[in-house]
Amino acid sequence: MTSHAGPSPAHGAAATTPASGSWFAPGSHEFITVVIADGRPIFRDGLRRLLQTEPRLRIVGETGRGVDAATLVLNLRPDILLIDFAPQTTFETLHALAAAGDAVRTIILAEFVDHGDLTKALELGARGLVLRDSAADVLFKSINSVLAGQYWIASDAVVDASAGLRKLDAELRSRRVFGLTPRELEIVRMVVGASTNKEIGEKLAIGENTVKSHLTHIFNKVGASSRIELALFAAHHRLLDSA
After folding, report:
1. H or E element: which one contains 138?
2. Inter-CA distances, 65 with 26, 71, 108, 109, Å
3. Last residue within a domain, chosen from 147, 175, 203
4. Is the pTM for the entire model greater than 0.90?
């Protein structure tokens, strides 16, 4: 568990900044203080480097242990806590901060959070969720939004927790398509409906060779090797629910 007495020099990968040169309100001389709590040193280092590209952000503390996050926040009183999602320790941290009446805005960083876990995190005081495969700019936008009193869920600001939950459900449905294009999803739907390559070609006004090419791309993306495997995969992952 470490704290930083002062700012570190900016270096590392930068996000695309807006025309003003900063994601945060111009003209203000106040720093936005941040604590990072993430158990993976490589990710924590990359996150630090990213945050240091924004002049108004100051990382005042870091910890690799989720259980230390509440102590660090209560000692340093940052504006923002960025915390890796590990259900039990994250919930304990949020509970401790809420019990202490701390005003830090907590943003959870996660590969995936289900509806129930996000509901609990929001009830305990979390203000945002950023999925780890998001663009770098999303993190800056999320910080800006929660500082303005909004919630941030996945890729957008929302006005309240219930709207955030609806947004997460929609976001996760959209991410379940495994990189398939709308046309490829249409072909998957036809395969599940037992259409032949010739029938698919006729319905889409494309040649059979083009259908075969699409199927090859689809198989590669989802790891299937046959139409039966593709149909089973689509059913198991509810692939067509969002198509």
Report:
1. helix 136-147
2. 34, 11, 14, 14
3. 175
4. no
Task: Name every residue whose Cβ is closer than 8 Å to that of residue 14 and which is 6 or more positions away in sequence.
Answer: 50, 53, 136
* Distance (Å, whole) CA 26 – CA 155: 23
Which one of 123, 141, 175 terminates a domain? 175
| Sign of the alpha-carbon dihedral angle for 101, 86, 83, 117 | negative
Token representation of residue 21: 């040169």
- Higher pLDDT: 235 or 177? It is 235
Q: Compute CA distances 112 → 31, 155, 173, whole Å.
A: 30, 13, 12
> Which domain covers residue 39, as residue numbers?
2-175
Whether residue 47 is found in the same domain as residue 84: yes
Residue type for position 176: R
Domain total of the chain: 2
Task: Identify the CA nearest to 66 among candidates 41, 81, 51, 86.
Answer: 86
Secondary structure (3-state) at 151: strand
How does pLDDT run across 207-240, given as a tens digit for each residue? Answer: 999 999 999 999 998 888 899 999 988 888 777 7
CA quadruple 74, 76, 82, 83: dihedral sign? negative
Rounded percentage of the chain residues whose pLDDT exceeds 70 = 81
pLDDT at 155 over 90: no
pLDDT tens digit string along 104-128?
999 999 887 777 888 889 889 999 9
